[in-house]
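Table S5 (text form). Sequence records supplied for joint modeling of the two-component complex.
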Amino acid sequence: MQQATPDPPLLDVEALTVCYRARAGLVHAVSDVSFQLGQGETLAIVGESGSGKSTTGLAIMGLLPTDRRTIVHGAIRLTSKSGSVNDVLRLADRERRRVRGNDIAMIFQDPMSSLNPIYSIGSQIVEAVEQHRRVARREAIADALRLLGQLGVPSPDRILASYPHQLSGGMRQRVMIAIALSCRPRALIADEPTTALDVTIQAQILALLKRVQRETAMAVVFITHNLSVVAEVADRIVVMYAGRIVEAGPVREVFKSPRMPYTRSLLRSLPRLGHVPRSGEPLEAIPGNVPSPLALPSGCTFHPRCPHQVAGVCDGLMPGLERCAPNRLVRCARWREID
Amino acid sequence: MATTSPLLQVRDLSKRFEVRRGVFRHIAGHVHAVEAVSFTIDRKEVLGLAGESGSGKSTLGRLLLRLIEPTSGQIRFDGNDLSRLTAAELRQFRRRAQIVFQDPYGALDPRMTVAEAVSEPLIVQKLVASPRRARDRVAELLALVAIGPEYMDRRPAELSGGQRQRVCIARALSVKPEFIVADEPASALDASIQAQVINLLANLKTRLGLAMLFISHDIAVMAHLCDRIAVLYLGRIMEMGPSFALVTRPRHPYTAALLSAVPNPDPELRRERPLLEGEVPSPVSPPSGCVFRTRCRFAIAACASTVPPLRQIDAGRFMACLRDDVP
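The corresponding structure-token record, covering 666 residues in total, follows.
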């Protein structure tokens, strides 16, 4: 999306497609998704349940199942610390494990299920450090203490000795971030990292991620359904619906003038504290439901819920992803007419 | 008198849970879940209850429905003390007050069809003469929440999250309640569906004249639905008032902090803001004096020794803070 630079982008996802063979048929979880991510940049992938945003994150981490029921196409090229470019989808397991953690790390919505309940926090951070760096145990522990201190954890030594169930949700997420950052990855995939947290703790974690990013020039893929969070943290946004990108561009531009009717409706349905409505004033809602991946509508998958849909146009062929401005993409047959 | 007094009057309500430890399960302390809370809810009024996890908002919602018993204090529903209801009166109360939970996946029995789930309260309360009559009523109720009659014989697995929550709302409405506790009814749903559910509740409030306690951690959503908002912190009401005034001009430092933590949906207004540091203290040993003082930027020495009373600062506006000059 940016001007051609001599360096390849840090992360280059090209035509990623993920399908699952289910009993009821072929489920298209992700269809033809492409985007790039530069150093120090934050890209938000936004979508509702079933949009394919989390599957995209798992694919980048090389965490999709490798059984015969899962079909993956496309390329996910990652520039490693050494400068070599690897396709995550084509790496051998061993190589992939090296890339994971070292070059790219991931944090999830629910830190409780990502942490092992029977090991102390300390041993889990130390394990992560030892997996990737040849260091003595004492050094790994010192590293863990330093990391937690940097992440604003009060009395890190006490946290190291505790077990996941003894910590609050916000503290567990800090520990997950510490583990993710322990090998100084160049990119972080954050899948709904603050969704399960209170707004006050969410604000702390977002500020923390921003600070880490400023200090390390780490790139972040921020997967979320919360557009207000996107407005706070991201440089660029990719909006997904039913497995496809439907709009992409710089956050400021997309928020100012969304082109795809889905993005427009999502933005209008946000409760805004800036101009608070009087009680009783309805929120703008999107009618209908998110379609099931097993029964996707014909043509544009959003057309049954779209206020601008025209029979014979929107329900026929799937519209392509078009460039509507220098840095912007939109998937809508009528984007030129509806303004 | 019954029609002019508030529907619900809560006075000095407290709930403490025992914390038991050791082989002999001795009482090691108490979780102060709700502490000396007083408020009223009028007929046809929606009171929003805002607060972080651990603030006691769900406990308070359950106390109001007598799903759990208070440690002390009094709840009057339509003038009657809830703790003194006879078995028959309690049954009557269960018809008049209902609850909608956060998780519509856990709230519906996967083996029951939509019609069975929605008609169950009608049958329990013996409000329908025959199953056939129940079906007509179920269709009516589903229409009220915008679900077509073709869903009557489907099971929860065939419904989306938003549809399930609508079914739960229809079930709560089946017995024609006057009061509903809605405990984070939209929080588990997709962004585009949350607005649908909030609008539905607002619509039902107007059409059916329902009174509601709307529990949420999302204060931004509350302004759309609620007449008044009460902000809870460690089981105590910090501030209470008309929602528009409270959200646009918060007076308690905690309310102000909670509002400033809400991410702003306008990327042009991205800013560094004062963060509320630390986490909610343990409700087993809450701080002395004002429970918020340990995280408050404006705390003074007196805050550690004096429990600030919830005092009136304006018409209909209350707050529990010693200082008048902040935030």
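Note: Chain B touches chain A through 53 residues (CB under 8 Å).
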